[in-house]
Amino acid sequence: MIEYLVAIGLITGIFAIFALGLNLEWGFTGLINFGHVGFLAIGAYTTVLLNQGGFPLWISMAAGVVLAGFFGMLVGIPTLKLKADYLAIVTIGFSEIVRLILLNEDWLTRGPMGLHGFDRPFEALIPFDYNYFLFLFTFVSLAVIYILLEQLVHSPWGRVLKSIREDEDVASALGKNVFSYKIQVLILGSAIAGFAGALLAFNLQYINPRNFIPMETFYAWIIVVLGGSGNNKGIIVGAFMLQFFYSGTRLLQDFIMFDSTQMASLRIMIIGLLLVVFMMYKPQGLLGKKEELGLGR
Fold this sequence. Notes:
Structural class: mainly alpha
Number of strands: 2
Number of helices: 11
Shape: globular
Distance between the termini: 42 Å
């Protein structure tokens, strides 16, 4: 049971970090990113490929974070001056381009065969079950990222982001370079996703393009909606709530005699129903502010 709870906690912590990057973009700045998983994939694959190429693990991780942030900037430059809908379309297209490159460039990524046999932080030094250490490492990382983001969003920089979210014309009229702030947010949010990708690779010990389908982005969106957009504490709570829904429905297989395919479909239906009921009564999320909801967002 302890091993199972640690495994569940690992996924929860990784997706909480992943969703914190999305919350910075959407919850605080109002940027619609439907391709967040693309930056998760860049962080994971860059870390693994560089490490397998002989680079030290920490340099490989840093490169994955920086490259994810760099591609966030590249995606934002041609799209952020357009309407928000275009950013959503471009980002989901970008994530699919990344996935298809990973799937088809066998010479680099081994395509659908995936990658394995890479280092993990301090693995040779841990005398006990490595998952316990990775659990601690993940949640310490989550705490550090949470604290840094809280400092940022409650600073003058963060207040500008909120003003852009509410009405970017007003922020522009007050002399703020709205485009520059949006680029900064995309870089930081994408870099956080890249770091989560490295952690995901360490947890899985094997990655392939199927790990980075668009549905992973919408898990992050569910976390943001459940916890409350614009609230970093809510994101962590939302990650635990989603994992509770997802893992709790596994118990149904002890009572319903369906095959694995039918059970998987039933679980998704039940999770969807639970989310609908929850949002009927708490549309702003568990810790979100109802007055911040609006169609303009």
